[in-house]
Design goal:
The chain is mainly alpha-helical. It contains 5 helices and 2 strands, in the order H-H-H-H-E-E-H.
Length: 153
């Protein structure tokens, strides 16, 4: 019986859930493992995986608006805003007004560029570690599965 076994309380669920067969639980567990590996690798650069991903998106898009970043990173505006505020406090990014008062444009600071560049080899190391475990065929299958899962609405 799974983690929602309420028989002892006199409750009989319509669906018996087992955390080992719950797709959501398994994906979240895998994501936590991978995130920890990348966080540990990036620690030497002074950022975590989420922060590195944000720096990468900002560097790649070149002066994106918050709306563009939200779209590119698949994060809602409030989560993205919290993440960006942390990067601002760290001195890694700055925000300016865009074409109107409602638009905010995000830039890497010189410190942000330095941290991003110094963190790239750390990210590459983590990437190679995971790729080595998966192998090329495993990586391809994982990406195919992730593309399918990301398409679910």
């Amino acid at each position: 019986m799974g983690f929602l076994d309420f028989k002892h309380k006199g409750y009989m669920p319509l669906i018996v859930m087992d955390v080992d067969t719950c797709i959501c639980a398994r994906l979240r567990r895998a994501t936590r493992s991978i995130t920890k590996l990348y966080d540990d690798a990036l620690k030497g650069g002074g950022v975590n995986a989420t922060q590195f991903t944000q720096l990468y998106a900002i560097a790649t898009i070149e002066s994106p608006t918050l709306v563009q970043l939200s779209y590119e990173t698949c994060l809602d505006r409030s989560t993205l805003g919290r993440n960006i505020r942390v990067l601002v406090k760290m001195g890694l990014v700055s925000m300016d007004s865009g074409s109107d008062e409602r638009t905010k444009v995000v830039h890497l600071t010189s410190k942000g560029v330095t941290v991003f560049e110094e963190s790239k080899p750390l990210w590459v190391s983590a990437q190679r570690q995971v790729a080595g475990v998966l192998g090329e065929i495993g990586r391809q299958h994982l990406f195919e599965l992730l593309n399918s899962v990301e398409g679910i609405k």
